[in-house]
Amino acid sequence: MIKYKGIHHLSMATGDLQATIHFWRDLLEMRLVVGMGKPGYRHYFFEISPNNLISFFEWPDVEPTAEKDHGFPVKGPFTFDHVAFEVQRKEDLWMLKDKLETGGFWVSEAIDHGFIHSIYSFDPNGIPVEFSYSVDGFNVRENPTLVDSSPHEAALEGPDPQRDRWPSVQPYAEPAERDLFPGEGRELFQENKKNWWKR
Q1: N or C terminus of the chain with fewer C-beta within 10 Å?
Q2: How much of the chain, in percent, has pLDDT values that exceed 70?
Q3: What's the confidence (pLDDT) of residue 10?
Q4: pTM for the structure as a whole
Q5: Is residue 186 in a domain?
């Protein structure tokens, strides 16, 4: 069985990296841990938690998206609704609400969803963000729950992976034959690249 550690990173796009850095690093207090780029292209990563990052590509012609309320149904081509971040303490939720409002960002009232309490806002790029605190005493990871009044047939099969659904996997290649091809990011380890933060 594959073991996941979390979401390594979500990648978004911006046309204004400065506003993005000020929001994610300075207002939300997520450390900026990687910055790569060249003219016409930048890729910056912010630390959410020890196992999770969010990154932004800066492309000059990207414009902020029109704000769409979180979870509000839409029609037509669509793939992304919102990203939700979990905070450790109930107080963190209220601190974020105050910080967002003080920073001039719209933020919802705190919503009680039963298993989480959440607030909703938008980053400078129009990306819908949610911040949630998990309610003590009800952990959906430990106690999966299906209360849909008309559940999808696949959901009725249960919460655990149905391993017989797909063909058996044949190994891709022997370890000695597993090639890696160079990609963006290798410049982080090139001696001729200046690390602006290194003293």
Answers
A1: C
A2: 99
A3: 95
A4: 0.86
A5: no
Q: What is the pLDDT at residue 181?
A: 86
For residue 18, tell me if it sits in a domain.
yes
Which CATH number characterizes residue 55's domain?
A: 3.10.180.10
Instruction: Output 2 or 45, whichever has higher pLDDT.
Output: 45
Domain span at residue 115? 82-138
Q: Is residue 87 part of a domain?
A: yes
Whether 7 and 41 share a structural domain: yes
Task: Tell me what pLDDT residue 171 has.
Answer: 77
User: Residue 68: inside a domain, yes or no?
Assistant: no
pLDDT beyond 80 at 6:
yes
End-to-end CA distance of the chain: 43
| pLDDT at residue 1 is higher than 80 | no
HEC string of the chain equals: CCCCCCCCEEEEEECCHHHHHHHHHHHCCCCEEEEEEECCEEEEEEEEECCEEEEEEECCCCCCCCCCCCCCCCCCCCCCCCEEEEECCHHHHHHHHHHHHHCCCCECCCEECCCEEEEEEECCCCCEEEEEEECCCCCCCCCCCCCCCCCCCCHHHCCCCCCCCCCCCCCCCCHHHCCCCCCCCHHHHCCCCCCCCCC
The backbone region for 137, taken as left when phi is positive above 0, alpha when psi lies in -120 to 50, beta otherwise, is left
